[in-house]
Every structure is written in C-alpha cells, then in structure tokens.
C-alpha cells in the first residue's frame, strides 16, 4: 500500500511530457531491438534471470529514476561551472577596481574617464 501511495504521489509530480511520452527512445539499432525482444520472450533458464523476470514491472520506474539521477548530476556540474565562472568574474572585477583606485592616487597623471 505504501509503494502504491508513493507511486501515486510521484505520478502527480510528473510533467505533462512525462505523462504523454513516458518511454524513451532506444539507442539500439532495429536488428538489435528485435533480438532483445526475442530474448525477452524466451523463458529464463538461470535463477537470476527468473528473479529478474519478476521485476520487469519496475522498468519504467528505473528509467525515470536514472533520468532524474542524470539530471541531478548534470545540474550539479552546471552549478559548479557557474560557481567557477562567478569566482573568475569577481577576481576580474576586483582587479579592475584596484586598477581604477590605483590610477586615481597617482599624482601628475590625468584621470581616466
């Protein structure tokens, strides 16, 4: 019941695009996709494959989870790049302000406009 309640809460938070197009395009070629479908239709023979067969219903969850994690990592990297750029701009502004204040203190030199 708890899992179903959480799934319903997550469904409400999905964007319109995720509700309409919940499946992602595959990076496999058409022949590879057909081979994968054929393999999925076969009955599993190994114990691990049989156990994984029970969790095929969670495939959409894992796709969404992985997408969210990738977005989180991308945003983290972008935030770090912005922090570094902000630091560079602060340093340049500090150098510029130091240069301007230094010029004004030099006697006999015309003031810059």
Automatic annotation (TrEMBL):
State what protein this is by name.
DRC2 protein
